[in-house]
Design brief:
mainly beta, elongated, 100 residues, three-stranded antiparallel sheet, Immunoglobulin-like
């Protein structure tokens, strides 16, 4: 399941910017991974009752020579999926139109 997509910018000109390489360097615990497009995905199901947030550190490398990188701390909040549909109470509306 996709969680979110990282947004990365690099002020370097080609070929020192993209493509970028991503890695989760802490907080993963085999529950998250990041693909080549920077999409962080879950590798498991979560239960908010067991744990409601996770702290990750994501590292992104540029394509430069030498390769440079930046780290970002990310907090993933676990929210419960809605299990109850909304309830609409019946409304009564009266519209009066005055003729000429």
């Amino acid at each position: 399941m996709s969680i979110f997509t990282l947004s990365v910018v690099d002020a370097d000109l080609d070929p020192n910017g993209p493509p970028f390489t991503y890695d989760i360097i802490s907080g993963r615990n085999n529950q998250f991974y990041v693909d080549h497009a920077g999409v962080v995905r879950s590798a498991t199901s979560f239960s908010r009752q067991l744990r409601d947030q996770y702290q990750l550190t994501v590292r992104v490398f540029d394509n430069g020579n030498p390769t440079l990188y930046s780290d970002a701390d990310v907090t993933v909040l676990i929210v419960e999926r809605s299990s109850s549909p909304p309830i609409i109470t019946p409304l009564s509306t009266t519209v009066s139109v005055m003729g000429e």
